[in-house]
Amino acid sequence: MLRLTGDRGLAERINWLLRIIPFGYILFVLAIFLKLRMLHSQLHALYIDMNLLDNLIAIGSVMLVSFWTLWLPPRGRSIALAALNVLLTALIFSDLVYYRYFRDFITVPVLLQAGQVGELGGSIRSLIYPYDLWLIADWGAWLALKLGMMALKKGFGRGGQGQDQPVFQQANRLADGGAGTLSEAARRQERRRRLLGRFSAGVIAFAVGFVLAVGPIRHYAKTWAGDLFENNWWNVSLYNVTGLLGFHFYDASKYVMEQLSGTDTVSAQEQTEIKRWFDEARSRRAVQNETFGAYAGSNVIVIQAEAFMNFMIGKQIGGQEITPHFNRLMEDSLYYPNYYHQTGQGRTSDADFSSHSSLHPLPAGSVAMRYPSHTFDVLPRILKEQGGYTAEAFHAYEGSFWNRNNMYQAMGYDRFFSKKDFTMDEPLGWSLGDKSFFRQSLARMTQEKQPFYNFLITLSSHHPYTLPADKKELDTGEFEGTVFGDYLQSVHYVDAALGELVEGLKQAGLWDNTILYFYGDHDNSLTDKADYERFLGKSLSDLDMHQIMNQVPLLIHLPDGNLTGTDDRPAGQLDMAPSLLHLLGISSAPYYMMGNNLFAGAETERLVVLRSGAFTDGGLYYIPSADNRFENGQCYDLESRLPIGIERCRAPYEEAQTRLRISDTIITGDLIADFRKEN
Ligand code: GP9
Ligand code: MN
């Protein structure tokens, strides 16, 4: 055995410790664990701090993604740990930024839309805070340590002359197993010993990581998170159970399984149940009353307005109306203040899909991105086939965004006018200002073969809502210079654009033979309650806030302006296709649609189910909890606006869950195509 005295003895002991305790690895686990905790502290939707089990899951999952680095020789391990650190930090940071905007985590389908995430540009910049630098604090510390070590080493090197061998060189030599002094056999034995040591360390780290991560997750799954992996949970609920790395592992494996298994197979029994459900839905909505076919042959213009919410309709700031044109239009139109957006991660594309197919969007990703080739009963195709319509889509942005080029072809549109088809004479925000967008779209419409179905998606009120100074016409007072003020400003601009379009339609002689269907696509991602309370001048309950964030206005102007007034009953984006078909006198009976027919009559029930599992039937309103267990949600009575016994919501809750499940099965299993083949 080698014996060293003084500095050398210390060096050997340090070195021995360095060899048996993987300090670098431990520091790595600690650093990533702290970063995961930092991310959690920034998730405003979660009211609870990480408990002991959550911490163990986080540590365990970091060990599970990194245990293999212990099998590598010291240098390789350092490189692998550094690379893993960079990768995991990038993942945590991306999730953080994504979460701030979408209140959700990145999934594989969303990653496949990475081009789009990049195109968020200005939005992303406004979602990055100086605080985020803490995520790379360990890199700074590591760099400082490295520089310090180098300086120290240099110092030793200069002082070490003659018999005083520099400590670090000595230590390094020892780390090599004292190669220079050992025989060949001893060297081999030493090598085997080191290999075995590394192998065992890796296996131990895996075992410990597995127990730490999987143990608590199993415990959660056996207790409050019972049906976690079967139901369509909102990703944030899943995260609450599995932690971030566990969530990504689950999401990625689900995606891989989905790809490997191809189209989901659905049992014959399940198919029968689904068909039965649709039969009932058909009889509910296929009502042939006096409004059925009242506007047969009319043109239809559908405008899906970006982040256009209901709370500011009819409201003023400093005596100025936010949406004066919308408000005027309401006077000879139908207005639905309880119209809900039913979108999920696919945002604009979900609003588009749900409105046109009358199915729910998926719990993860966008249908347009994931299943553009599956069969859906969509409005443009039906109108072309059943009503001889020309169908065109207009959106002045990149045609590939949300896979629109492919999706619109699949939906049967004759043409899709994207950014390349517009003259950029009014650059604004992401693209072209809505005023010019409407003007140019209208010019096209006047040349179109009638009757036409035209779908327009606006963009000027997209996050981060900043307008050039010369476009700001609203005095937002106390909100000046805030993102909330900018939002009101941009909506005011879009409203003015709507006013110009209506004028243009009148001048072009289209107003009197066109149904105008205008709705907002989703919320504005601004969730600070204080802003809404200040703007509305009253304090808001959880129920108020939930409704505010989920209600988008719907306005339907009919050619003769005959049907007018406010319909207070709940309605939602899924209701668009069956309702328009009804007005045009085309039966929706042959189609697999889930939405309500808004013209079916006052007695027909209207259940509106949101993607999160929230729902309302007009009397009750259910808000799911973060853990998504029915009992932990809140059931409200809309009359008193107070929480009531949860059991009152049970039956509609079951129905809401059934609808979400059926919709998901239809979409992922491409069932409509199968059902058609059978007939
Ligand atoms: C861009 C528009 C914006 O084409 O659809 O999408 P969003 O970010 O709201 O989903
Ligand atoms: Mn949108």
TrEMBL record:
Keywords: Cell membrane, Manganese, Membrane, Metal-binding, Transmembrane, Transmembrane helix
Keyword Cell membrane: yes
Organism superkingdom: Bacteria
Gene Ontology, cellular component aspect: plasma membrane
Pathway annotation: Cell wall biogenesis; lipoteichoic acid biosynthesis
Transmembrane segments: 16-36, 56-72, 79-101, 195-213
The organism's taxonomic lineage, starting at the top: Bacteria, Bacillati, Bacillota, Bacilli, Bacillales
Residues the entry annotates as binding Mn(2+): 306, 348, 521-522
UniProt domain Sulfatase N-terminal: residue ranges: 298-586
Organism field: Paenibacillus oralis
Membrane disposition: Multi-pass membrane protein
Subcellular location: Cell membrane
Residue positions of the active site: 348
Family matches, as Gene3D superfamilies: 3.30.1120.170, Alkaline Phosphatase, subunit A
Protein's UniProt name: LTA synthase family protein
GO molecular function, one term: metal ion binding
